[in-house]
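Our platform keeps sequence and structure together, in a single record for each protein. Because each token names a local backbone shape, the row as a whole describes the fold. One such record is reproduced below, unchanged from the form in which we store it:
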Amino acid sequence: MVEGGPPAAAPREGLRNDGPRRYHARPRGAIGASFSFQATRRFSLLKEVILTPEGYDSLKQELDVLRGDRRREIAERIRTAREFGDIAENAEYDDAKNQQAMLEHKIAQLEERLAHARVIDTSEVDTSVVSVGSVVRLRDVDAKETIEYHIVGSAEANPAEQKLSNESPVGKAIIGRKKGETVEVTTPRGSVVKFKIMEIKAA
């Protein structure tokens, strides 16, 4: 250090990403991503994302495709569009750049989810109560209809596949409840629906 000069800046440490946190520790591949200091601060405020092993693998595969094939496709579109001439009046170039921006936004979203993922161990799901990872059979008391749901985290929720988020109104009402219990759920329209828990099993 030169006398009278400013102190040398301390080296910045990169953000480590050693993979998702889990209910039950089990080795799994880490996500190799570097983040800026601003991104680190923003990520620290995000809540953890609960995923099943299948959900984690699905998001990881999607991210790999976007980082690889999709990025190359858009890069090629941009390169080709530049050959058309002046990019200031090049609609193809503008469209390709917009697609690139949306792609990078999607990649960032997936990286955030995976960086904050907690993967459940389905072999240790407690079938005495409803929890994430449970498959629950519910009976609508008034309509006398029965439906089966797989309880998942919000990142995996898909009503078309009977995957119900633990953060949904029904999910919140049945989490922690036991077989035989009846819960009341207030719908977005204000009506109340009663569900009886008929069965709880592991996925």
Notes: The CA atoms of residues 135 and 203 lie 6 Å apart. Residues 1-17, 23-44 have pLDDT under 50 and may be disordered. The beta strands are 21-22, 49-51, 117-119, 134-140, 145-152, 163-165, 182-186, 192-202. The longest strand covers residues 192-202.
